[in-house]
Write a structure and sequence with these properties.
By secondary structure, the protein is mainly alpha-helical. It has one domain. 49% of the residues lie in helices and 9% in strands. The chain has helices at 4-22, 59-78, 92-106, and strands at residues 26-30, 49-53. The longest helix has 20 residues, at 59-78. It is globular and about 40 Å long.
Length: 110
């Protein structure tokens, strides 16, 4: 596996689509510039704009929680860190601190 983060994003994308369908909504990949300024520029990151039709009000938050926690788990397994991962979804500032701690611990010398 050349890039665990990229592969994790691809797998979580498929799982999020499955989650959306299981909640009675419809995921649709769209083209355009609807998310300019939100999506990172350049070719280094996987990016796809996703329109979700017939979504319940709670579905966006559920997708965010699911996506973040499952991506972290997939990366952890792929690179065999065996790191402690929080059982509950962290607030954005707590998640930032957690990720920075992991980067410092496992990032190596540069």
């Amino acid at each position: 596996m050349s890039n665990p983060a990229m592969r994790g994003l691809q797998l979580v994308n498929v799982e999020i689509r499955s989650l959306i369908l299981s909640k009675g909504a419809t995921p649709k990949a769209i083209r355009g510039t609807f998310c300019n300024g939100i999506i990172p520029a350049g070719d280094l990151w996987y990016k796809e704009q996703l329109l979700i039709e017939n979504a319940s009000e709670s579905l966006p938050d559920e997708i965010i929680r699911f996506g973040v926690t499952h991506l972290l788990k997939k990366i952890d397994r792929a690179i065999m860190l065996g790191s402690y991962l929080p059982e509950t979804f962290l607030a954005p500032d707590e998640l930032q601190v957690f990720l920075e701690t992991l980067c410092k611990r496992y990032g190596g010398k540069r």
